[in-house]
Amino acid sequence: MARGGAFVVGQVLLLFLIGLSGARSGRRGSVLGLALMLAGGALGLRGGRNLTPLPEPLPGGHLVTGGAYSVVRHPIYAALLLAAVGWGVYRGSGVALGWTAALGVLFHFKADHEEAALLGRFPEYAAYRARVRRFIPGLY
């Protein structure tokens, strides 16, 4: 788990809990929730191919700063959070939204781990990090 496997295990568990708690809510149907899930899916698809579930750069990988990465440093994490918020809203599940908040905290620490590795491997990451926000354009 030295490469960040515990983050991946936590991520999978929280995504399962989000899905399960939303499914058990018994409510359906917010247009806003559906729109957020679709936006999360669209952002996730724009995340690129240089991906690994572990918070370590791939051997032979390269630093990506264009496309979705020009808007946020971690578009896959942002996409999962957006879709999870959408799911909680769509299903009217406060429990799913609570688990989504926990996922946001986990992604904060996973991104810290990942960014330390990226700084060590790509000196130009410091300038990129200074100009592009982590998960929410212009805010965070």
From TrEMBL:
Transmembrane stretches, start-end: 6-23, 30-48
Keywords per UniProt: Membrane, Methyltransferase, Transferase, Transmembrane, Transmembrane helix
Gene3D superfamilies: 1.20.120.1630
GO MF annotation terms: methyltransferase activity
GO BP annotation list: methylation
Record's keyword annotation contains Plastid: no
Record InterPro entries: Metal_cation-efflux_comp
Statement: the UniProt record of this protein carries the keyword Zinc: no
Alphabetical list of PANTHER family matching this protein: BLL3993 PROTEIN (PTHR43847)
Protein name, UniProt field: Isoprenylcysteine carboxylmethyltransferase family protein
Organism of this sequence: Deinococcus koreensis
